[in-house]
Design brief:
This protein is about 25% helix and about 30% strand. With about 1300 residues, it is an alpha+beta fold. Helix 13 runs antiparallel to helix 17 and helix 17 runs antiparallel to helix 18.
């Protein structure tokens, strides 16, 4: 299968007299998506050719396919819609009258004002003795008076002074206006001006506030009309409809009106569904003899209708105008197509949207209520199938079930008609068919999902993806294991790069569908889903910044994303609970649960920011909040005032009675959020434990309740409160099965009844609750508790008398000005009072507790009355979760509260922190460890054996590498090069190849030395017995020249670019004269490669002076490479210098001892850090700083280092500094590699470089005869052997600080 890429490019060209102009799309229009979206005013009027080019590339085979499609688009000029101030009618007193026109739908002045023509005329509607008038402005002047000087009829403004005419009182003059422009349909409007008979009354008119296009009112939107505040609206007022189409049934003032009063009229959507003109009149009766009126007139255009029903004007469009083909099939196996008849609309072209709702069983969609107490947003999973300008879809997939497709036909101005098709029954595919589809569809190389995503088309991308996810949910609901498909969908979603709102909705829908059944959600699927959800929340936050999105859109996306988060948290709990029930305390699954849960809560933190920072600033309500909830988990996000010192009670909506009470919000926020930042809280309640992965989650037997304080986009830590926080949470139904005793009995007044109980949990509080008829027996009740023996009135451990006095009862303010009270017939012994220890709850030797109770006193015994009662004995513990550190439930800083009972747990927490100086390790019983059954912990055994097996295999490799290093060490002689016996002419050249990637070379390296007196011949550095110039290698060569070169000034270095990898990175070259001992450095740190750096393979390198050598850059490169390859224990196993006495086998052995000793210390201190509290925040200059590590954790690290380091450092020291065993010179000579032995038969050396001589000979002399070459060869052997030994001894001299047998001590 080959990797392919797809790209899309749109072009739009304008046709002018059959000539196509250049590209006309502006730069801000995205032209590389599968859909081309053109904002308003993008194209001028005219004819355009629209072309889309799709390119598919398969680089592996060099194949490219290009597809082109074209169509013509004609853009018509928009009609002019003009309105006058006051709309249809207004009342004016005698005086100045202004008539002003404006273009209702041309706010951006798309038509230049000098191209507009205004045609005014006036006529008398009700006018005593009207004058004879002509048309145009003269008619207006005759009826209303002479135009004032500031009038400008050609720009839409008339100004009359009716008091100068004078205009008769109670007259009506109709002012008409026609506005025209070339190429546009003209706009017509009028206004009736009523002159009031009472000059003391002011102007009266109507202003539109919403849905304000009088030439095209949108029927499915609300109409909102108001009387402006500048109008004196005192006195009785009424609203009436004075004009409506003949078929209009009239207004139902009870059901059709949202709001009606003296100043406002709000009409519900879908009231004005009959096409035609409507006129709304408002009448004011401040003076009953001279009522004032204002009118608003608007036109409703008919919604799009099927062409064949154009004459019928049906109230509803029948479903048979569209059909699904075929009428039945199998999801993901069969393809479907939807075809509709043509529709007609008065305005122009129509857009068609095809969609349907997915409603698989078992899905509990979240509800979002924002802002505040507003109506909850109804969330639906909607699959958008297709959107376009044609009345049919391409071949599409449909989800299983009874599918009702909805077709939305909309006009350019927002009017639409909806068609609901008859249900289509789609069967579910088999599991194998689902797997086959998801494998192909989500293939990251050639799958349609990622190809469509690369073309930036979210609607088409997620249409089939949501369908596949719905199939996953449907099969899971039928009990089929679809874990493999869930993994593939979740993995695909994690790779999505979200681009728009449709992508957020599609991703959220996929995630919530595939995670709805937690038993089929693997650890990887949880992690991938949590990543996707966090990414989607972040994208939603980015898009909604500064309130840039509609509230409805944000609420819808939040509902779907929150449903997904609830599913992931539930899956984490179910999988972790299964692991714990199997006795597993650590596993890959639990780690995945931990990662998924942590990231999901991070996603919920982003949700806080979306509402607190992005959405809430647009509202003034001080108590603004957002409620987001499912049946299992509930989140409330509330804005707060950081200076509020009043008591706060946080609850969630619905049937939940959990709450968190804080003394004041200012005590929570402290001084950690100042300077006008956005402040709020997140209150969370979950009826399951999302942190089930924690090893001590067995402690949690109630709902999980949490409160987080938000300051902008960060969460403030809350601890060290002077007054505790009260938390009330419901117990789980099973939570008291092992922690409660229920005694139903009866007792005579004055008698003592005894009951025997055991404690079940250490460090828990013990409560006693009594239920009996208080009205019949209003006597005090005395209780005694004693360990080991039954109590008596004189001998007991603890005692109490019930009822508790009313002034001592615990009270919490509740909703609707009520209060919650602790029970007067309940006795609570706190944790530190009863002090239940581990010995008390030992299952083999439990401590006996006896509880005695007596109704009344001994004097009541004579009455002989019997009291029936029920005694509840229960234990309670309070814990909180350390999510950021230990991931364990802890109890420090929390105490059980007096409102705890058999249904709820009451906790009072302040989160104080303890410190410790030394942490004792866990005891290690070696004898017990060896006698234990190793199969009880196979994971640990497998780990130890796997490490040792890897070590053995590594030793085999390291031993071979060490042997190769022996061949690399020492000084080489160039083949055929005759050594000059004069030491002042001999030079030791050491070449350092860098450690860059692919720094080594297969090419032949040649250099020339240049001195102040002479220059050397070209020297090709070769050695047939070893590999040269490998990455990080150091290669030395002994060469000579005819005469001393003098002071070296520079050198020339090049290579022949031969072999399969000729590129070479040279670090430096060091040249040492054997006679003068002068060492010269040539620093390079450059590439010799045609495909790296500057592309050169031939360079001149000058001599480096001290200033060059001591530069930080050069020192850093040299020291870092040397220390990484020799001093770094792990890295040097592979990069060890060939001349180092510290072999690879020894280094690998040191790594093994370090790893095993680290494992041992981990066992010694496992879990010890969890026994201590996290560090208290540090306060500095008003800031709170949370230390990343506590003192006990720091001590554990120090103690572990003290145990591990000395032993391992000693072993490394012995290996690195021990010498080698002395051998006789004869054995040493025999043990040298073959490259130091001269063959008896002379070998002829040839070189590919014509500049390199086969032997050395003095400059200017004839080529020596064969006999002379033999003599020189024998001399070469003696000199080379001697020189090699000398340099080898010098290389190791000074390093042997320990005798050779020190190595054996290290190995022991």
């Amino acid at each position: 299968m080959k990797l392919s890429y797809a790209s899309v490019q749109w072009t739009v060209r304008q046709s002018d007299t059959q000539v196509l102009s250049l590209e006309v799309l502006p730069d801000d229009v995205i032209a590389d998506k599968l859909r081309l979206d053109l904002p308003p005013d993008t194209l001028p009027a005219g004819l355009f050719m629209v072309q889309v080019t799709v390119t598919m590339e398969v680089p592996e085979v060099g194949h490219t396919s290009i597809g082109v499609a074209q169509t013509w688009l004609e853009v018509f000029p928009f009609p002019i819609v003009v309105t006058l101030n006051g709309n249809a009618a207004r009342t004016k007193p005698l005086g100045h009258v202004f008539v002003t026109a404006w273009l209702a739908h041309d706010s951006r002045c798309r038509i230049p004002s000098d191209q507009l023509s205004y045609n005014w005329t006036c006529e008398a509607v009700s006018y005593p003795n009207p004058p004879v008038t002509s048309d145009g402005i003269p008619a207006c002047e005759a009826l209303l008076g002479t135009l004032e000087a500031d009038s400008n009829p050609d720009r839409g403004t008339l100004h009359f002074d009716t008091s100068l005419k004078p205009v008769p009182l109670d007259s009506v003059v109709k002012v008409r206006l026609v506005v025209a422009a070339e190429g546009h349909e003209p706009g017509h409007t009028y206004i009736d001006i009523h002159t009031n008979g009472d000059p003391s009354l002011g102007e009266y008119r109507i202003v539109c506030s919403f849905n304000c296009n009088p030439g095209d009112l949108i029927a499915h939107e609300m109409l909102y009309l108001i009387i402006p505040w500048s109008v004196d609206n005192s006195g009785p007022n009424s609203w009436t409809f004075v004009e409506a189409p003949a078929d209009f049934p009239g207004i139902d003032w009870t059901n059709d009106i949202l709001l009606v009063n003296d100043d406002n009229l709000k009409v519900r959507p879908n009231v004005f569904t009959v096409p035609g003109y409507y006129t709304v009149r408002a009448t004011n009766y401040l003076n009953e003899n001279f009522p004032r009126i204002g009118e608003y007139r608007f036109l409703v255009i008919r919604n799009p209708v099927p062409a064949r029903l154009l004459q019928d004007n049906p109230a509803e469009i029948p479903p048979d105008v569209c059909s699904v083909r075929p009428v039945e099939g199998v999801s993901l196996v069969d393809k479907f197509c939807i075809v509709c008849e043509d529709f007609y609309d008065e305005v122009g072209p129509l857009k068609v949207d095809f969609k349907y709702k997915v409603e698989p069983g078992g899905v509990d969609l979240a509800t979002v209520r924002f802002p505040g107490e507003s109506q909850a947003a109804a969330a639906d999973i909607v699959v958008n199938l297709f959107s376009g300008w044609v009345f049919y879809t391409p071949m599409i997939d449909l989800a299983p079930g009874s599918i009702i497709v909805e077709v939305l036909v909309s006009s350019a101005d927002g009017r639409f008609s909806t068609v609901q098709l008859d249900p289509v029954f789609v069967d579910s595919p088999s599991k194998d068919a689902l797997i086959a589809f998801t494998e192909t569809f989500f293939d990251s190389r050639v799958g349609p999902f990622f190809n469509l995503m690369s073309m930036r088309s979210s609607v088409e991308t997620f249409s089939s993806a949501v369908t596949a996810a719905s199939v996953v949910a449907t099969l899971a609901n039928n009990g089929i294991d679809i874990s493999q498909a869930t993994d593939m969908v979740a993995d695909g979603m994690a790779k999505v790069e979200l681009q728009d709102y449709d992508g957020i909705i599609g991703l959220a829908s996929c995630i919530l569908l595939v995670t709805v059944f937690p038993q089929y959600v693997s650890g990887n699927a949880q992690v991938h889903s949590s990543m996707s959800l966090k990414h989607a929340f972040e994208k939603l936050g980015e898009m909604s910044e500064n309130n840039n999105m509609d509230v409805e859109e944000v609420n819808m996306a939040t509902a779907l994303l929150f449903t997904g988060t609830a599913h992931v948290l539930k899956a984490s709990e179910v999988k972790a609970l299964s692991e714990h029930e199997d006795g597993v305390g650590f596993s890959n699954m639990l780690e995945k649960n931990k990662e998924a849960t942590t990231r999901t809560f991070q996603a919920l933190d982003v949700l806080d920011d979306i509402y607190l920072i992005n959405m809430m600033p647009a509202y003034d309500d001080d108590n603004l909040f957002a409620d987001i909830f499912t049946s299992k988990i509930h989140v409330k996000i509330k804005r707060e005032d950081p200076a509020d010192s009043s008591e706060e009670l946080y609850t969630v909506a619905g049937v939940s009675d959990s709450f968190v009470r804080v003394p004041s919000f200012s005590s929570l926020a402290g001084d950690g959020c100042l300077g006008g930042k956005t402040v709020g809280v997140q209150f969370l309640e979950s009826n399951f434990n999302p942190f089930e992965y924690s090893n001590n989650s067995r402690l949690v037997e109630s709902d999980v309740v949490g409160l987080a304080v938000k300051c902008d986009n960060s969460t403030l830590p809350v601890s060290g409160l002077s007054e505790p926080i009260d938390i009330l949470a419901r117990r789980e139904n099973k939570s008291l099965d092992e922690l409660m005793y229920i005694f139903t009995s009866s007792s005579r007044l004055g008698d003592i009844s005894l009951f025997h109980i055991y404690a079940r949990r250490n460090m828990s509080a013990m409560g006693f609750s009594l239920d009996y008829n208080i009205t019949l027996f209003p006597h005090d009740v005395t209780l005694w508790l004693r360990k080991h023996q039954p109590p008596t009135p004189d001998t007991y451990g603890w005692t109490a008398t019930l009822p508790v006095p009313e002034n001592q009862l615990f009270t919490v303010p509740w909703i609707n000005e009520t209060s919650l009270l602790s029970s007067a017939y309940q006795w609570l012994l706190l944790e530190d009072e009863i002090a239940i220890t581990d010995l008390d709850v030992d299952k083999y030797n439990r401590t006996d507790y006896f509880i005695g109770l007596r109704f009344g006193s001994e004097v009541d015994r004579a009455r002989g009355e019997t009291v029936p009662f029920t005694l509840y004995v229960f234990e309670t513990s309070c814990v909180y979760f350390q999510e950021d550190e230990t991931h364990l439930w802890q109890s420090d800083g929390c105490r059980v509260g007096p409102m705890s009972n058999i249904t709820h747990i009451h906790c009072r927490c302040d989160h104080l922190t303890k410190f410790a100086g030394f942490v004792p390790p866990n005891p290690l019983n070696i004898r017990e460890a060896f006698s234990a059954n190793i199969l009880e912990n196979p994971t640990g055994l497998i780990l130890v054996l796997a490490v040792f097996t890897s070590y053995v295999m590594g030793v085999i490799w390291a031993r071979k590498a060490d042997r190769k290093d022996i061949a690399k060490a020492g000084v080489g002689l160039l083949p055929g090069h005759v050594l000059n016996p004069r030491k002042d002419c001999q030079y030791l050249i050491t070449v350092y190849t860098g450690f860059r990637g692919n720094a080594g070379t297969t090419a032949e390296i040649t250099l020339v030395l240049y001195g102040s007196q002479y220059e050397s011949p070209p020297l090709t550095l070769r050695d047939d017995s070893r590999c040269l110039f490998e990455q990080g290698s150091v290669d030395s060569f002994l060469v000579s020249t005819e005469e001393p070169l003098g002071v070296l000034t520079h050198m020339r270095v090049w290579h022949n670019n031969a072999g399969f990898s000729p590129s070479w990175y040279l670090s430096q070259i060091v040249v040492a004269n054997r006679a003068t001992k002068v060492t010269t450095y040539f620093l390079s740190n450059r590439w010799f490669a045609i495909d790296e750096g500057d592309g050169k393979i031939d360079r001149i390198i000058p001599t480096s002076v001290e200033k060059d050598i001591t530069k930080f850059h050069n020192l850093f490169l040299a020291k870092s490479s040397r220390e990484m390859n020799d001093d770094h224990l792990w890295y040097s196993v592979a990069g060890r210098p060939a001349r180092s006495p510290f072999t690879r086998v020894q280094r690998l052995s040191c790594c093994l001892t370090l790893l095993y000793s680290t494992m041992l210390t981990n066992i010694m201190f496992f879990g010890r850090g969890d026994d201590f509290d996290p560090p208290e925040p540090l306060r500095f200059a008003g800031l709170k700083i949370n230390p990343p590590i506590s003192l006990p954790q720091l001590m554990i690290g120090i103690q572990s280092a003290v145990i591990i380091l000395p032993v391992n450092l000693l072993i490394v020291f012995l290996f690195r500094n021990s010498g080698t065993q002395k051998r006789s010179s004869g054995k040493k000579l025999n043990s040298e590699p073959d490259r130091h032995k001269r063959p008896k038969k002379e070998e002829t050396f040839t070189s590919d470089n014509p500049d390199t001589p086969s032997v050395w000979y003095p400059r200017g002399r004839p080529v020596p005869i064969q006999k002379l070459r033999v003599v020189q060869s024998s001399l070469d052997v003696r000199e080379s052997s001697k020189t090699h030994d000398e340099f080898k001894d010098n290389a190791v001299r000074g390093q042997k600080s320990l005798p050779w047998w020190g190595v054996f001590i290290g190995e022991l």
